[in-house]
Amino acid sequence: MSFDDLLADDGRVEPRDEMPDAYRRTLIRQIAQHAHSEIIGMQPEGNWISRAPSLRRKAILMAKVQDEAGHGLYLYAAAETLGVERADLLDQLHTGRQKYSSIFNYPTLSWADVGAIGWLVDGAAIVNQVPLCRCSYGPYARAMVRVCKEESFHQRQGFEILHTLAHGTPEQHAMAQDAVDRYWWPSLMMFGPPDDSSPNSAQSMAWGIKRFSNDDLRRRFVDMTVPQAEILGLTLPDPDIRWSEERGHYDFGPIDFTELGEVIAGNGPCNRDRMAHRVGAHEAGAWVRDAATAYEAKRAARAEGAA
User: Which of 74, 77, 43, 73 is nearest to 61 (CA)?
Assistant: First the structure.
């Protein structure tokens, strides 16, 4: 079946199928950015593992950070089915030729930020990623099934942290509110620029890589999050949020996408720190990769000699 026929039949494109070069390039860019985001996303929460307020919280956060590492590995493996090398993707990340999600360039200033990341950031990720389970490229779609299941756990963990803080002391409630105030607008920007300013969305939707536009996904996230904020007893920092009977959705205020452009350009609060930490960790782990390569070469040589 031809590529166009597969898409028309809502089928799955597999690695050995013929596909346009532009489709392949778009997938590599999107999957790589997704993988990079999972790996870089370990940093904002990872530095709170040693400072978590209880052994239970520490164990849950460790499990979450471990999940994020696994997500990155699933996604790099999916990208490799398109004919790229993982080492090349990492090199492009380290040299700034590929990006990761803008949200991970914001600092985690308090324990409540770990809750805000789980509730808002992972909540936004779920809205964005569940439709990817029906992506037209098979390996990406299949990887997303497990990723989304685990992201649901992450979102509930964040909600629980904020719920505990918001119903604790006045100081704890203020801490939770401060975290939500700082992470709300960056979370809305995670879905990308408005549809009329997004250079890739229309083609990605035509190819079945994306199922919904940036603005549609952003609206779904707001509709999901506003009732949850009421349960938490926290206020979203947007006085324009109100229910529209006519549209059947929540209206919300304008987003200043200038900030998104600055963060993507490398001028966010933590861009340089995140990349310096990532490159340093990669270089420090070179001996492990070298040892694994040497071991595999010896194993292959023994196997060849035995034959």
Answer: 43
Look at residue 306 in the predicted model and tell me its pLDDT: 82
CA 65, 69, 75: angle at the middle one, nearest 5? 140
pLDDT in tens, 20-67: 999 999 999 999 999 999 999 999 999 999 999 999 999 999 999 999
**Mean pLDDT computed over every residue of the chain:** 95
pTM, two decimal places = 0.93
Joined tokens for residue 137:
């490229």
- Nearest CA to 198 out of 210, 180, 208 is that of 210
Q: What is the pLDDT of residue 1?
A: 79
The first and second tokens of residue 202, run together, are: 């229309």
